[in-house]
Design goal:
The complex is a heterodimer of chains A (about 350) and B (about 525). Chain A is an alpha+beta fold and about 350 residues long. Helices cover about 50% and strands about 10% of the residues of chain A. Chain A contains 17 helices and ten strands. In chain A, the strands form four sheets. In chain A, strands 3-5-4 form a three-stranded antiparallel beta sheet. In chain A, strands 8-10-9 form a three-stranded antiparallel beta sheet. A two-stranded antiparallel sheet of chain A has the order 1-2. In chain A, helix 14 packs across helix 15. The longest helix of chain A has 24 residues. The relative contact order of chain A is 0.04. By secondary structure, chain B is mostly helical. Chain B contains 22 helices and twelve strands. A three-stranded antiparallel beta sheet of chain B has the order 1-3-2. Chain B has a three-stranded antiparallel beta sheet with strand order 4-6-5. In chain B, helix 11 runs antiparallel to helix 12, helix 17 packs across helix 18 and helix 19 packs antiparallel against helix 22. Chain B is globular, with a radius of gyration of 28 Å. Classes of the chains: A alpha+beta (about 350), B mainly alpha (about 525). The interface between A and B is large, with 46 and 65 residues.
């Protein structure tokens, strides 16, 4: 067709164009027409199959975006693509991205500035080789859950696959060491799945206070006592120092960092405790009424200061002795409510009272 | 007025004034103001007895009467209140306080006044002096003037007050035939207790010392002489409120001593003593005192230099219990004692201590946690208190079932579906304190019941031992042979002796327990009252 046109032009003696160029223009025009048609009807894949001829004639833009993404391993925003490829229309761009997403080569992330596109790890895709779409889907769901993990029932809801199928896939993935099952502390029977190389979140393992999803209350108690002992000895030393009351008070304070160091040096803990862990322990002491806390401003860079603040703790004495009523049997009586004179349980025949009197 | 209070009041009345008075008293408590006729009708007690018991109640200030509400001239109605009757429980403490503050004389004065309800000064002084003389060695005796000076000291410190003159009772003060000066004084100060005392005491003292010469020798004889002393019609009673203020101050001082140290508590004591007179009983905090004033009033024996005092005051202000607050900067800093806040803090400590002793320290941790953080979900409680979920749940539910912790539901949807509802645990201090107060009343009542039971059980034994003691005394008086005495003594067998000893131990234990519980009651009562006034 282009040859015919060039010949006609030459015959008419008009300005001639070389037939190859003309053909190219024609093809371009035709392609655009077809592309627009297919885009409107919504099946670009068909267009690609019919017209792209394995990207000989044209290709659906995507490769460029892919390249761009590889340059920025942390992901790029829509804006970056736009700047880099000004020739692309927004719709084309969107389509290209959609295609990459559906092929599983691109990840869509959301951050504070908006949507973010990122190349998928070639690793993970390579790992996924030889697995079918369902497996990929499940893998993706688990990956999305991050280090919090995901429960198999939630996977079922998200993937709409039958439970048996999912179990099979999970077993499969587990055997490939792509994912692992972690028991959650929140519910001991609940298993959550996460990627194999991830460190489970604190909410799943419960942090330093759990071993095999059992809360180590003894460990907490021991730490609680040790912290208190430390603060108390400090307070006592301050009291014995016979200095002015202000100095005495100030020297009875210990920063959370000091407590942390003391506990670390004691070596009671098998696991590494963080400052935060120690602070939670110290908080329990506050709720025990044995310790007081104040926050003071600290110079930036002082050890143990967080955001220019330093938490100071000190051991204190209780305000009152056990109050009178609990020194009687009635104050501790488990059947206090049922006790009436003349009844089955009465002060006259109370066994607690008898024991107490004979004590 | 709760069932527990009424029960306790009944027991207290029974113990102090006997069965009939208790019956009349509880009847009045249960049915409110009533006239004489209704009381007789409803209790089924004879007119004479009812009258007598009402007299007893009125004498002790536990019962008031007023003319009928329905119409002028309708029969006089009688009314009692729990508060006043419950004071009986605290009598030992009043007496003990008087002893520590003013020695034996003060103790006996308060004791006499408490036992008789109200008395004139002259008769009080006389009785006390007689009693003191009786306990002294032969040949020595107590001077009236000493007793009366102790009495006037008690009045000066407001521990004693004059009974308000009876308005409609027909015993008008002016009507009493007394010395010429007296009538004017009570008339011009009808309900003020303090001002007239000074003049009255001066005269009373003079009168008493005048008669010393003739009377002292036969002071031992406890006969009432018919001579007038110039204070007829002026009756005195114990000022319970003043004692309570004293107890409150003591509680605050000892709390400061526990929390900080002895020196701080002495500073607080000085501050409280300085403001004793200037601060009204219901004030939330004392009148501001400057550091200079405090420094000058500190007893020199403490030897606290000025800069150290300033430091102590700063420490007291900084303390999270907030016993002492700073009111201003003038005069080297103005300081106040936060009375109500201190009471609230002490009451909170009491609640915490009850939870701690009854449910263990971990439950107490949860309780304190909720007190501090107000509203928490179950999960948060577990995390903050670092208690395993299972145990925390158990403890929370136990506390909830005992009404020490409350549960607040906040539904996201109006249908209160459990899955869409927040369940917040919280502690309400005041209602909890009230509940605990009721428990305390019940506890005391239980202890009294038990004590009555114990003594009833070994009634025969007690009577026997009393009889034998009486015989021994009479034998000794008549100068019997020692063999006779041992013979009589042996009438009580060894096991019986043992039993008596055990009984005495039991009763002492129960008695002291009653007093201890009363301390708790006092703290909680004053806290509840302080919230009512502030």
């Amino acid at each position: 067709m282009s040859i015919y046109l060039t010949r006609r032009d030459r015959l008419q003696g008009g300005p001639t164009l070389d037939p190859v160029t003309l053909w190219r223009y024609n093809v371009k025009a035709r392609l655009r027409l077809e592309f627009c048609f297919h885009r409107v009807t919504g099946n670009t894949d068909v267009f690609e199959q019919q017209w792209a001829h394995e990207e000989l004639l044209c290709r659906v833009t995507g490769g460029e975006i892919k390249e761009l993404c590889q340059q920025f391993p942390h992901g790029i925003t829509d804006q970056v693509i736009q700047n880099d490829m000004p020739h692309l229309e927004p719709q084309q761009r969107a389509m290209a991205i959609n295609k990459l997403l559906s092929l599983g080569q691109l990840d869509l992330l959301r951050n504070s500035s908006g949507l973010l596109y990122r190349m998928k790890d070639m690793q993970s895709t390579s790992k996924m080789k030889g697995s079918d779409n369902q497996e990929k889907l499940v893998y993706q769901i688990i990956e999305d859950a991050g280090n919090k993990g995901i429960w198999s029932r939630d996977i079922r809801f998200k993937s709409n696959l039958p439970l048996t199928e999912i179990n099979k896939i999970l077993k499969n993935l587990e055997s490939k060491k792509l994912i692992k099952a972690v028991k959650s502390v929140a519910a001991s029977k609940k298993k959550v799945y996460m990627l194999y190389n991830l460190q489970p979140d604190r909410s799943v393992t419960g942090g330093a206070w759990y071993s095999d999803q059992d809360f180590e209350s003894e460990f907490v108690e021991v730490l609680n006592q040790q912290c208190f002992k430390f603060l108390q000895s400090k307070a006592e030393a301050a009291r014995d120092s016979k200095q002015s009351p202000m100095v005495q008070r100030n020297s009875s304070f210990a920063t959370s960092h000091e407590v942390w160091k003391y506990i670390c040096e004691l070596g009671i803990s098998k696991v590494d405790l963080s400052m935060d862990d120690i602070e939670t322990i110290l908080n329990t002491l506050i709720y025990d009424g044995k310790v007081e806390m104040t926050v003071i401003a600290a110079k930036e860079g002082t050890v143990g200061s967080v955001d220019g603040q330093m938490k100071l703790y000190r051991g204190v004495n209780p305000v009152i002795q056990p109050t009178g009523v609990v020194r009687t049997p009635c104050g501790l009586c488990p059947v206090f409510e049922d006790c009436h004179e003349g009844g089955e349980i009465s002060p006259s025949n109370c066994i607690y009272m008898t024991e107490w009197l004979d004590f | 007025m709760t069932a527990q209070e009424v029960r306790l009041c009944g027991l207290l009345l029974q113990e102090h004034f006997g069965e009939v008075v208790a019956k009349v008293g509880t009847h009045l408590l249960k049915s409110g103001a009533q006239n004489l006729r209704t009381i007789i009708h409803e209790t089924g007690i004879s007119l004479d007895l009812v009258k007598k018991s009402l007299c007893v109640l009125v004498q002790h200030g536990t019962c008031v009467f007023s003319s009928g509400r329905k119409a002028p001239g309708s029969p006089t109605e009688y009314r009692t209140s729990c508060d006043r009757i419950l004071r009986i429980l605290r009598y030992p403490r009043y007496i003990y306080t008087a002893k520590t503050l003013y020695g034996d004389t003060g103790e006996l004065i308060i004791e006499e006044l408490l036992q008789r309800g109200d008395m004139t000064m002259s008769s009080t002084v006389k009785t006390v002096a007689d009693r003191l003389t009786q306990n002294m060695e032969e040949g020595r005796s107590m001077d009236y003037s000493e007793v009366s000076s102790a009495f006037s000291k008690l009045v000066e410190t407001h521990f004693l007050q004059r009974c308000p003159p009876m308005a409609g009772a027909g015993t008008k003060d002016s009507g009493t035939p007394a010395t010429p000066a007296t009538p004017a004084i009570p008339e011009s100060f009808p309900d003020c207790y303090r001002v007239p005392h000074v003049t009255l005491i001066g005269r009373g003292k003079r009168r008493l010392s005048n008669e010393d010469g003739e009377d002292q020798r036969n002071a031992k004889k406890t006969k009432m002489d018919s001579e007038t002393h110039g204070d007829e019609g002026i009756y005195w009673q114990v000022n319970f409120e003043r004692f309570h203020l004293h107890f409150r101050d003591q509680a605050i001082i000892s709390a400061v001593a526990n929390k900080l140290d002895q020196t701080s508590s002495e500073i607080v004591r000085t501050m409280l003593r300085m403001s004793e007179v200037t601060t009204s009983p219901t004030a939330t905090c004392t009148k501001p005192l400057s550091a200079n004033e405090i420094f000058r009033s500190l007893p020199s024996s403490y030897n606290i230099p000025r800069p150290i005092l300033d430091q102590y005051l700063t420490l007291l202000v900084d303390d999270p219990m907030e016993f002492v607050g700073k009111a201003g900067e003038s005069g080297g800093g103005m300081y106040v004692v936060n009375l109500h806040k201190a009471l609230a803090n002490l009451a909170r400590a009491t609640l915490e201590s009850v939870v701690q002793e009854r449910f263990g320290s971990r439950s107490a941790r949860i309780f304190r946690l909720l007190l501090r953080k107000r509203h928490l979900e179950q999960k948060q409680v577990e995390d903050f208190a670092m208690i395993p979920a299972k145990e925390a749940k158990d403890m929370l539910y136990t506390l909830l079932s005992q009404n020490l912790v409350q549960l607040q539901e906040i539904p996201k949807t109006p249908d209160y579906a459990p899955s869409r509802t927040f369940y917040l645990y919280t502690v309400n201090q005041l209602p909890t304190a009230r509940m605990l107060l009721q428990n305390c009343y019940k506890t005391v009542a239980n202890l009294i019941e038990r004590r009555l039971f114990e003594s009833k059980e070994s009634k025969r034994l007690l009577e026997k031992s009393q009889r034998i003691e009486a015989i021994l005394a009479s034998l000794q008086a008549s100068g019997a042979e020692p063999e006779q005495l041992t013979e009589v003594e042996e009438m009580i067998t060894a096991p019986e002796k043992q039993q008596l000893e055990a009984l005495r131990l039991h009763i002492n234990k129960l008695d002291s327990a009653e007093n201890q519980v009363d301390e708790t009651i006092f703290l909680l009562e004053s806290y509840v009252n302080s919230t009512a006034t502030s």
